[in-house]
Known about the structure:
Largest sheet: 12 strands, antiparallel
Distance between the termini: 97 Å
Strand order of the largest sheet: 6-5-4-3-2-1-12-11-10-9-8-7
Strand content: 35-45%
Structural class: alpha+beta
Order of helices and strands: HEHEHEEEEEEEEEEHEEH
Number of helices: 5
Mean pLDDT: 83
Low-confidence stretches: 357-386
Radius of gyration: 48 Å
Helix content: 25-40%
Amino acid sequence: MRKVLPAIILAAGAFFLTMGLLFRFYAYPKLAVVPVDQNSQQVAYDPNAKYADVKAIKKKGPFETSGPITTTATVIGNKEASENASEQTGKDLAVWQTGQYTVNDDPEPPPMDGKKAIIVFDRHTGEAVNCCGESQDDQDVAHKGQLVKWPFRTEQKTYEYWDATTEKAYPATYKGTESIDGLTVYRFEQDVPKTKFMTQEVPRFIYKPGDKGGPVQTDRYYSNHRTFWIEPETGVMIKLQEEQKQTLEATGYRTITALETTSTFTEDTVKKNVDEYKSKATALKAVRLWAPLALSLLGALLLLGGLLMAVLSGRRGQAVDDPGYVIRRGRPPRRRRPSPPTTAERSQQRMRAVVTGGAGFIGHGIESSCVGFRRRLTHGIISVAK
């Protein structure tokens, strides 16, 4: 048992240490990916936007008006296309279909604005990948930068974010850390400079009411200032605000405001995002950090304890096998001093000394006496002869 217990503790330590490493380097990469079957919707609202009423062209009424507008963005993941794209490129990719449309308070169609796209991006970083049928409004396009989300474990730095109107990516810069309903988020801001993105013909009466002349060739300009609130563990956009402006400009005519809005995710949308991704962020952080740290620390302590027990057990075993060693608690083993002989042992020692040493002495004396006797005898014989 003395040798078995340290072995059990060492095995447990190795197990927990291995589990900690598996959580961090195997389980976490498997979990920190966007789903290929995503299906979600985000809603933004501006209660007092300025916009050009397209329907007024037919009614020949006021073209510039104001009122509430609502923008709805939807993403639907294509699982089969995602698997094919991943197999084709050897990367872990997601293929999503996105759609966005903006309406005012007029229930009659058409919407004020609408866009659709097929986006292909890395499931870990959220960054665009140019392949596999990506498009925008049914036209080929080469997406760039972040498309709908930030990377897992978002950093406090600048990222490129795609702008669908200009079909370019612009820097989105980290501006600070905030909290939304108890959820920590990073705030990023992006400026899209005033850019001409299309040329169109508009009726002349839009510029000059009552003028029945031909259409006017007009350039349409666009600018935007976006603010993103990103949950850093998942990279998900919790809240978005767009300060967008579009104008119609033609030489010799006044500038017409086609759209001026500050649209922000609705409270319901933000609350839904916070409720969903607060728990997911906590779970991901536990798998990435807390579980590996706790398991690795426990494993290291068990390994250390097992090694210490093995060393102490070995020393106790040596003390049992060698009676010359005495182990005192808290002190290293030391050589035991021999016990003094007893009275009986001392008597035996003296007897052995007399028998061995005394016999030699007696023998020597006998030998000496014999020699003297021989000398005296010889001397006597010689004397008689004389």
